[in-house]
Structures are given as structure tokens and as C-alpha cells.
From TrEMBL:
<dbReference type="Pfam" id="PF04060">
    <property type="entry name" value="FeS"/>
</dbReference>
<dbReference type="GO" id="GO:0005886">
    <property type="term" value="C:plasma membrane"/>
</dbReference>
<feature type="binding site">
    <location>
        <position position="113"/>
    </location>
    <ligand>
        <name>[4Fe-4S] cluster 2</name>
    </ligand>
</feature>
<keyword id="KW-0813">Transport</keyword>
<dbReference type="GO" id="GO:0046872">
    <property type="term" value="F:metal ion binding"/>
</dbReference>
<feature type="binding site">
    <location>
        <position position="46"/>
    </location>
    <ligand>
        <name>[4Fe-4S] cluster 1</name>
    </ligand>
</feature>
<feature type="domain" description="4Fe-4S ferredoxin-type">
    <location>
        <begin position="104"/>
        <end position="133"/>
    </location>
</feature>
<keyword id="KW-0479">Metal-binding</keyword>
<comment type="function">
    <text>Part of a membrane-bound complex that couples electron transfer with translocation of ions across the membrane.</text>
</comment>
<dbReference type="InterPro" id="IPR016463">
    <property type="entry name" value="RnfB/RsxB_Proteobac"/>
</dbReference>
<dbReference type="InterPro" id="IPR017896">
    <property type="entry name" value="4Fe4S_Fe-S-bd"/>
</dbReference>
<keyword id="KW-0408">Iron</keyword>
<keyword id="KW-1003">Cell membrane</keyword>
<keyword id="KW-0677">Repeat</keyword>
<feature type="binding site">
    <location>
        <position position="149"/>
    </location>
    <ligand>
        <name>[4Fe-4S] cluster 3</name>
    </ligand>
</feature>
<feature type="binding site">
    <location>
        <position position="123"/>
    </location>
    <ligand>
        <name>[4Fe-4S] cluster 3</name>
    </ligand>
</feature>
<dbReference type="InterPro" id="IPR050294">
    <property type="entry name" value="RnfB_subfamily"/>
</dbReference>
Amino acid sequence: MLAALLVMALGAVILGAALGYAAVRFRVEGDPLTEKIDAILPQTQCGQCGFPGCKPYATAIAKGEADINQCPPGGDEGIRKLADLLGREYKPLSAEHGVEKPKALAVIDEQRCIGCTLCIQACPVDAIAGAAKQMHTVIAAQCTGCELCVPPCPVDCITMEPVAETVATWKWKYPVVAIKPATAH
């Protein structure tokens, strides 16, 4: 009986190892260019570019199906980075997609919130907490400032508040740039 259990356990370990190897060996990676483009985009998932999120927009840019100037949250700086990455000419932000604005976070006036959940349903990054007929609140660390929660609110209790520039938020405006150490010749 003990021998049978040991054989079964050993078989399970071998099968698990084989399946794990297959998963690693045949894992499909994303398109490297799409990944680089997506890393430049602001990850607001706002849809202002005409795509349902940053990754679909990055994919369209990589395929040559979208212009690099359709992202208002990424603004001028994002367009310049995309132009540099892709070796394309810089174009100003397309007015048809919106205007560049300062980084902002959604704030819910909890006294006026009726708990309708329409903002929760609209939020693409699950940054709003609450329940039906209960007040809601924004989880500031998760809010991307996409503004998609504002239009569906029936009592206009959501406002977009500019993010003050502090040590904690400076990276939103000025992304960290890696500096390569000097090499000895």
C-alpha cells in the first residue's frame, strides 16, 4: 500500500514537472514593440485615443493602424517619446481626441453619494469602492484620472481634483530615466 502511494506521488511530481516545463517552453510572449509602446503610454485606460485601453492603442500603433498623437493623458511628452522610439516625425496632440490636462484624481463627495454604483461600473481600473445604496469612495492610489466615472453620476458628486506636485507624485510628470554608467576604455 505504501509503495503504491509512493509510486503515485512520484508520478504526480513527474507529470507536474513535465507540464510545468511545457508551460515555460511554449509560453507566448507579446510583441516587443507593442510592449515598449505600452510602457510609454500613461495606463489611464480612458479610451480618449479611440481604443478601449492603452494596450489596444499600443498594438494599433505598432501595426501602423493608429497615429502616435491620440493620447491626451500622455500629452506632448508621450508623443515625443513615441516618435523617438518609432523613428517617426513628431505631431502635436490631435484635437479630435482631446486636450492635455494636468494629472487629476476623482474625488467623491460622500455626503451627496446615493450609492447607485454607476461610477463603479464605469471605472476601468476598479479604483472606486462601495456597495449598492451605500456611499462610495475613490482609492486614490489606483485612480488614473481617466474621468470615466464623472459622466454617469446622476447627482454630480464626483469632481476631478488636480494632483499637487510632491515628492510622491513628481514621477507622473517626470518619468524616471535610467542613466547608464560610464564605461572604461
